[in-house]
């Protein structure tokens, strides 16, 4: 009989551990997927922003040497991603192609100006910062006019803020759900050993001594669950990369590193805290309360 009971207890314990690991793995997988979306959405929004250009139309009396010097000085600015020079001849050729006829034939001259297209870094693509840059460049002696799509910048900034807010709200919600689910799974696992905990306490074992093996066991289970979650995330990343190669998910080592560290760290912190408070609660129970 004792051997059958011990075998039953072992099976029950193993089943409890497996359920905890699966719960942790599923929850961390969900959080990891959401983290991937959050990180890549930031990257995508930055790429969209960095395709926005502010164009400087130069005065006719500015020579090529001055243009090159001016271009080099802009390239060194902290807000600049890249600068492209377009001569008035290139602009005329492009415009003629767009309208389908050579407008210079009936005008007799090229009314267009030399231009510098400045592609800004993502942090500077906001209505306020671009307006500040416009004011700055209009004061320059070489610049005749400044042009950029103000309505597009306003809409882009507004939509990115809205999307970021909801993604952060979802991240916070799922993180809270993750903590609650993992905490519940660990508490149930530890609750099944409440009589062992109370027996150790009655023979004089300190709370720290009793708590320590449970914490290490919880961390181990958390790390196993985290590894399973990362394997699942790896498969998702591989699949998404095959569907959308332009995102370069497999080559984005920074994002992958953040995900790995984030999942492992979350598993460690959540399981440590959950195990600590679960054992603390049982240690504070009276003997008669163990039966409820």
Task: Provide a compact summary of the structure.
The protein has nine helices and four strands, in the order H-E-H-E-H-H-E-H-E-H-H-H-H.
Give a description of the structure.
This protein is α+β, with helices and mostly antiparallel strands and 292 residues long. The chain contains nine helices and four strands, in the order H-E-H-E-H-H-E-H-E-H-H-H-H. Strands 2-3-1-4 form a four-stranded antiparallel sheet. The chain is elongated, with a radius of gyration of 31 Å. The relative contact order is 0.15.
- What is the N-to-C succession of helices and strands? HEHEHHEHEHHHH
Based on helices, strands and strand pairing, what is the structural class? alpha+beta
Terminal CA distance reads: 26 Å
Give the tally of β-strands.
4
DSSP helical segment count = 9
As residue ranges, the low-confidence spans are none
Biggest β-sheet, characterized?
Answer: 4 strands, antiparallel
Computed Rg: 31 Å
What general outline do the C-alpha atoms trace? elongated
**Mean pLDDT metric:** 79
The amount of helix comes to over 70%
Question: What is the topology?
Answer:
Blueprint (H helix, E strand, L loop, with lengths): L1 H48 L3 E6 L5 H12 L4 E7 L1 H12 L4 H4 L7 E6 L6 H12 L4 E5 L2 H42 L2 H9 L4 H37 L9 H31 L9
Helix pairs in contact: 1-6, 1-8, 1-9, 6-9, 8-9
């Amino acid at each position: 009989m004792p051997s059958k009971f011990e075998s039953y207890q072992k099976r029950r314990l193993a089943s409890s551990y497996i359920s905890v690991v699966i719960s942790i793995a599923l929850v961390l997988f969900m959080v990891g997927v959401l983290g991937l979306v959050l990180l890549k959405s930031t990257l995508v929004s930055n790429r969209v922003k960095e395709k926005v250009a502010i164009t400087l139309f130069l005065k006719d009396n500015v020579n090529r040497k001055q243009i090159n010097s001016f271009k080099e000085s802009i390239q060194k600015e902290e807000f600049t991603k890249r600068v492209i020079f377009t001569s008035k001849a290139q602009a005329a050729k492009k415009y003629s192609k767009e309208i389908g006829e050579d407008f210079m034939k009936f005008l007799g001259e090229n009314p267009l100006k030399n231009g510098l297209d400045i592609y800004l870094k993502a942090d500077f693509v906001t209505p306020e910062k671009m307006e500040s840059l416009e004011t700055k460049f209009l004061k320059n002696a070489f610049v005749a006019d400044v042009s950029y799509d103000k309505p597009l910048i306003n809409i882009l900034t507004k939509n990115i803020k809205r999307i970021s807010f909801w993604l952060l709200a979802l991240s916070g919600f799922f993180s809270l759900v993750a903590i609650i689910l993992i905490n519940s799974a660990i508490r149930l696992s530890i609750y099944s050993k409440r009589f062992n905990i109370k027996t150790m306490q009655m023979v004089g074992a300190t709370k720290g001594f009793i708590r320590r093996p449970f914490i290490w066991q919880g961390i181990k289970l958390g790390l196993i669950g985290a590894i399973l979650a990362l394997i699942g995330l790896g498969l998702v990343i591989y699949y998404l990369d095959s569907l959308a190669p332009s995102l370069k998910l497999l080559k984005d080592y920074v994002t992958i590193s953040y995900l790995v560290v984030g999942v492992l760290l979350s598993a460690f912190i959540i399981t440590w805290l959950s195990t600590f408070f679960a054992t603390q609660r049982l240690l504070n129970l009276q003997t008669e309360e163990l039966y409820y």
